[in-house]
Design brief:
2 domains, 4 helices, alpha+beta, single chain, Phosphorylase Kinase, domain 1
Length: 166
C-alpha cells in the first residue's frame, strides 16, 4: 500500500508515518537517511558510522540524483571519474523478492545477461537516455505478467526483443 502526503509545493509525494501516526514525506535520495525518530539498532551503528566517514575511496562515481528507489535497490544518475553522466543500478541482496522468490540481485544479473546477449545485434546501437514514454514495468504489467521465455519459436524469441514499449 502506497501512502502519500503533500510535499513542499503541495504536490503529492510518497509518505511514511511518524511516531505520532502523521504522514510525513518519505525522503528518498541517493544516500541512506534515517528518519529523525528512528533509533538505529546497535548492530548497525558501526556500519552507519563507517558509511558516514567518507565511503570507499575507489568508488569512481559521484551520485547526483536518485531516479528511483525501492527496497530492492535504486537507479541513480551519476558521473564517472571523467565527469560523464552515467546511470547506476543498485540491487540489494535478499530484498525486493518477486513472485518467484528471486531477489533484486538475481533480477539484475538476469537483466545483465539479456543486455549482454543484445549487445551484438546490428540493429541496436546503444541505450538511450530518454526518460519519456512508458516505464518498462508498466509495459510488462500490461502483458499480464506472462513470461514468454517458454514460448520461443525457431527465431529464439527475437520477436519479443523487438516488442515496442510505447
Amino acid at each position: 500500500m502506497r501512502m502519500w502526503c503533500p510535499g513542499e509545493n503541495d504536490e503529492a509525494v510518497p509518505a511514511i508515518e511518524d511516531v505520532g501516526g502523521e504522514l510525513v514525506p518519505d525522503h528518498r535520495g541517493p544516500v541512506f537517511a534515517v528518519p529523525p525518530w528512528v533509533e538505529i539498532p546497535a548492530i548497525l551503528r558501526p556500519h552507519l558510522a563507517a558509511r558516514r566517514s567518507g565511503g570507499p575511496v575507489d568508488f569512481p562515481y559521484r551520485v547526483d540524483e536518485a531516479l528511483q528507489v525501492s527496497n530492492g535497490g535504486g537507479i541513480y544518475l551519476a558521473r564517472n571519474a571523467a565527469g560523464e553522466k552515467v546511470v547506476l543500478r543498485e540491487a540489494r541482496p535478499h530484498a525486493g523478492l518477486d513472485c518467484h522468490r528471486a531477489d533484486a540481485v538475481a533480477r539484475l544479473r538476469r537483466e545483465h545477461a539479456v543486455l549482454t546477449r543484445l549487445a551484438g545485434l546490428d540493429d541496436h546501437a546503444g541505450l538511450q537516455r530518454q526518460r519519456g514514454g512508458r516505464r518498462v514495468g508498466v509495459r510488462l504489467g500490461r502483458s499480464g505478467g506472462r513470461d514468454h521465455r517458454d514460448q520461443r519459436g525457431a527465431d529464439g524469441g527475437r520477436q519479443y526483443l523487438e516488442y515496442p514499449l510505447r
